[in-house]
User: Fold these one by one.
Assistant:
Number 1:
Amino acid sequence: MHSHTISRRDFLAVSGAGAVLCGAAAGKKVPVGLELFSVRGELAKDDMGTVRAVARMGYQVVEFYAPYFTWTAEHAREMRNLMDDAGIRCHSTHNDAQSFTAEGLPKAIELNHILGSRYVVLASAGRISGLEGWKKVAGQLAEASAKLKPEGLRTGYHNHQLEFTPVEGKRPMEVLAANTPADVMLQLDVGTCVEVGSDPVAWIRANPGRIHSIHCKDWSPDPDKAYRVLFGEGIAPWKAVFAAAESVGGVEYYLIEQEGSRFSEMETAQRCLDTWKKVKT
């Protein structure tokens, strides 16, 4: 893994932030949710029934991804009513670039308000060329943040492998973190960070108070398994990730995510939650 060092001043800042966050979150259990891409096949067939089933499993939160943007306001209200009845919440949505355009943002705001979401997350920046390209992405996030803030919403960015792969000697995630306001969430996908050799714990500690949610996706170096391992079966250092997220990162909720596994989508979701309960005790 890449080495990651921080200065004494940064260490003191991290430590101080961690103490504040610990005090604020004392006795508070961080909820666990499901990124619904994990059950995308079922969701496409019956989104209402799928969310109801996920709530019945014991998940406390869901994160809707790009297809939600095609909903009408009426359908979003029906989904919100179902979630309220089932006792499950939506804290964030995953969005493609369309949601961040001048034409798309008003609809994203409307749907996220209805769903009770806090964060409108850019799921991917697509193909970006050079560090200047990443600085432009940071500028887009900053602009979106300024527009969302008066609406009581915040923006965020979700990483994949690309953002932790050095470009011109620097990781794009470092560029995004340095060139966006502190209220832009840096949603950490652990598996993709680990795959390219970056240390997720060091990243959390280097960005105190900005890791408000984490995609708990595991990864195995065995090419026959890779992302098809269930949560807890790969090499991600979950105990250390949770400790850093809760003492320093400012995590508000976790999201289990699966790209696929040897089991059906719903059984995969249930098995991951069962393991989660053992790992988090």
Number 2:
Amino acid sequence: MNEVRSIDRIDTGPRFTDADAIRLNQMFRGSDTHEMLAGVLDGDLAGDVAIVSSFGAESAALLHLIAQVRSDIPVLFLETGKHFPETLAYRDALAARLGLTNLVNLTPDTQALGEKDENGLRWSYDPDGCCDLRKVQPLAAALNGYDASFTGRKAFQNSARAELPRFEVDTSDAAGRLKINPLIDWPQDDIDAYFEEHDLPRHPLVESGYPSIGCSPCTHKVAAGEDPRSGRWKGWDKTECGIHLPGVDGLAAALDHVFGAAG
């Protein structure tokens, strides 16, 4: 009797689903951030992982936490060509200080810039288009090689981030990459205390009134008491560059149901 040979199939499904994100949120519920990071990285729970870092005002805290677990994790930095010189100097100094051995600078496609931002002023009349060219597209191409990414987002930064969970599925495409927000529940006081405890250097522009730092043309000083990100894209109806898209409402509702029932 001839055996029926099974057909080889390529798995084209997403890497992670909302159910996976809910499971991970449940798994690490009550765990502190270091325990969670060690569990994810040492336990290989998220596959190939990179951290996306702006080397901004509070980036040193997450980079330090991750470096204690794995200093060779790829650190993806979007070198847009529009950063403050202070940011680039801080990036290099902090990477050396923390022993980060795998810093990856992502740059925009030169042909795309030539076609769509030849004079470099697109930020002044189309900030969404500028961010897409200089941030969204380069990062999307780079993340194709990873299953998950760490972000430095925190709930206190603005209302759009207030309900984000630790683990969510990246909604930027259908690949199903996991997006991990280790500091999402850290208040500003805890961030400040962590900097003090570990003697971490601050971004040099923080003391000048920049609590959230992005590209220089679209970053302004923030007055005391204002939303920390209100200086980003000032005067525009824009709060995100586009690499973090909304789309966790269903997941948030599911988490409320799961954790509410458990409580």
Number 3:
Amino acid sequence: MNSDGAENPVSPAPADVPDPASLEVAPAPPDAPASPTLGKVFIRELRSWFWVALAFLLITGTMVQARVIPSGSMERTLLVGDHLLMSRMGYDATIPFTSYHLRLWREPRRQQMIIFRAPPEPNEDYIKRLIGMPGDRVEIRKGIVYINGEALVEPYRNGLPDPSDNYGPVTVPARSYFVLGDNRGDSSDSRYWGFVPESNLLGTPIFIYMSVEAPDEAWQPGEVRERFLAYLNAMLHPHLVRWHRLFTFF
């Protein structure tokens, strides 16, 4: 109490006040990232598609390509309208956007089907059966093929040997091949235009991924309209698709 008898109010003890110098200043929150501009988005997408396109070109130039059979020279093995996936692995590489080809390390085998740039028509690709290897002596007597004097067994042939089919004998030059169609009566092959240079080799068929019945002209090079109509007709009439031939491997 004070001298007047009144009670003095008691002030609460002051709380500990921290030293301002010891306070840590919290960092300011980072600024939100700026939204990319339309130009940057476009460039980013363009770069992504560039790599996709480059990978596609490299794959189709060096690994696989699609082909369609335009003629009956390989019947009964291959039919007109068969769509093939061709392996180029190890045979030939195409430089994108050019007509240049690079010969690779792999060599084909006798009686294997091969796809090659046709000697009589360099802008077209043929598919035939490889019969004669470099250095082989090839002869055809009454439709029967002889390699180095021995008759060749050909279970893939379409029809019996033609007694009027005679050829040779000839020796296959180095770095060249002698080829024949399985349908000997309807095949433009080495009997008529000679040997296939090694540098013309493109690859070998892997499997049939589509087979469509249509007029032969639909599958000839440059017949875009006829080919489009063939696909459209197959969509409207599914029985024109040879479903049993799909994914036939070789």
Number 4:
Amino acid sequence: MQLDKFNYQEVKIKYLKFLKSQEVKSEPFRNKLTQLNKFYFPISKMIHKEFLKNKKTKIIGLTGGQGSGKSTISNILKIVLKIGFRLETLVFSIDDFYKTLKERKLMAKKISPLFFTRGVPGTHDVEMLYKCIKNLKSHKFKKTVVPKFDKSTDDRCKKNKWIKINKKPDIVIFEGWCVGVTPQKKVDLITPINTLEKIQDKKKIWRNKVNIELKKKYQKLFNLIDQLIFLKVPSFKYVYKWRLLQEKKLRATATGKKIMSNHQIKNFIMHYERLSKHMLKNLPKKAHSVISVDKKHRLKSIKFN
């Protein structure tokens, strides 16, 4: 499909309206239309091309460090795919499949206290997620629901707030910080990567368990992905900076709910540090598309592998 066949005006209006709803006063979006034309249209064309191969539901994995823009980019791609390419598009996050607070408390008690903190492989309900994606891809698709997770309460939402999926999607954008990540070599697990691992994971129980989960359950899940897009941040230190921005947005919308302090966020992202650095090293070679994000949080370049 050529761009001149798009309802470009409608795409542009919805796109700009969405960005306005996402803006935080301290960091507005820059070069909005340039980004739309240079990044979001080419990525959407790539996804459309993948769909046209056999017109079966395609799972598009979108991965990258915390605060790299996955949620925003997913929703923009949905606008372009739905309005521009007329593709039924569903977006959900691996975050919505976190185990419940009760389940993670049990993991913390049985395996390691570090599993109380959501995020790393092992803290998601992979079986539920696998069945969900298999159903979405199946030609015998059945109406289903996708859970929702409330980060401000650190628990799964009640079922009446889950997303109902009544129609089989053409495209599923499956986003999450660890989507598509590969397990590490055993030798890479020996040395602690930060103070959290050094003090709270002296016997390497937590990081070994995370790696085992990745090798088994998660690789089976990630094999369902048809195209993987990796958002490559400049370095891990920007994960903290941008995670603070995420929390600022949450503070603005989650009145009266529990929000993390800056110190708590710093401790929180230490749980993610090992795999985030591993992804920065390995995923640029593995992903089908690599989008580089600059230090000012803007899309800088795109590479199709």
